[in-house]
Amino acid sequence: MGKALIFERWNSGAFGWHMGPLAGGALPIVARIYNAFRPAREPAMHEFLLPSPTPHWRPRLVLCLLAWLVFAAPNARAQSQSQTQGQEPDYAALAQTWARSTLAQSPPDANVRLRMEVTAGALDSRLRLAPCGNVEAYLPPGARLWGHGRVGLRCVDGMARWNVSVPVTVRALGNAWVVRGQVLAGSPVTQNDVVQAEVDWAEDSSPVLVDPALWLGQTASRTLSSGQVLRQGVVRPTQVFQAGTQVRVVAEGPGFQVSSDAQALAAGVVGQSTRVRMDNGRITSGTVLDARTVRIDL
Prior knowledge:
- By secondary structure, this protein is α+β, with helices and mostly antiparallel strands.
- The protein has 4 domains: 4-86, no CATH class; 91-172, no CATH class; 174-236, Alpha-Beta Complex (Type Iii Antifreeze Protein Isoform Hplc 12); 239-297, Roll (SH3 type barrels), CATH 2.30.30.
- The protein has helices at residues 7-11, 22-37, 58-86, 91-105; strands at residues 4-6, 49-51, 115-120, 134-138, 147-157, 163-179, 194-200, 219-220, 235-236, 239-241, 246-253, 256-264, 268-269, 273-278, 283-288, 293-297.
- The strands form 5 sheets. Strands 3, 4, 5, 6 and 7 form a 5-stranded antiparallel sheet that branches. A 5-stranded mixed beta barrel has the order 11-12-14-15-16.
- Helix 2 packs across helix 3.
- The longest helix has 29 residues, at 58-86.
């Protein structure tokens, strides 16, 4: 046989050598290693052309193959894994796009103009999801696109049906009433105590008090600090009289109105119901209008 042997003949096992899966990627590297250390009298090894398998250079070829397995193979596997990971779909972007589209179609508050912002986190890096032809996004039961939440992703067209969720943060930016300085607990909230500013409505689940009638003149239920948003629960109606106070009861009906004196049997809070005892001893309930008046609807 001549001085050279075609690679296919070598890999076919004509000399008892089978390079198998190493042939495609290993041979160019093995050739370079072999050529770097071969004696001058030995023929050079080319990527697709091997010298005759004479016995005295076979050990060196084996050493070259072992060197490739130790140093080059791990790098090749890492590169292959990196390429595979880079081809995975961007599930965070899919969840973010779906959430933005859903919020655009169904705003959380149709009566208030809010600027919605959505950011999505990453899936657990330990997850290895099977390829899927169609990934469907959905809102998990009990979840809402408000503040910190999650968007579900499920594979509906693939060899393996999987279901995962992506963390998302939704911000709803809009004007609201915020405390200018500090309001002590039990103090009434006045117009001078607040100012309008753009805030994130979704930072808290409690509704924002947009209408001044919902907070003006009411009492701070706890100490309010500067920059705090007026939300449901931070103020309560102000108590205007105590039990035992003499009040005026106004009874209204279709086409008539009568009034009489009575004694309050409980504390009175504007807009809330209280019980009073009339001069004739009768006990009835009515709505507190102010510090001296209770209305009874007949």
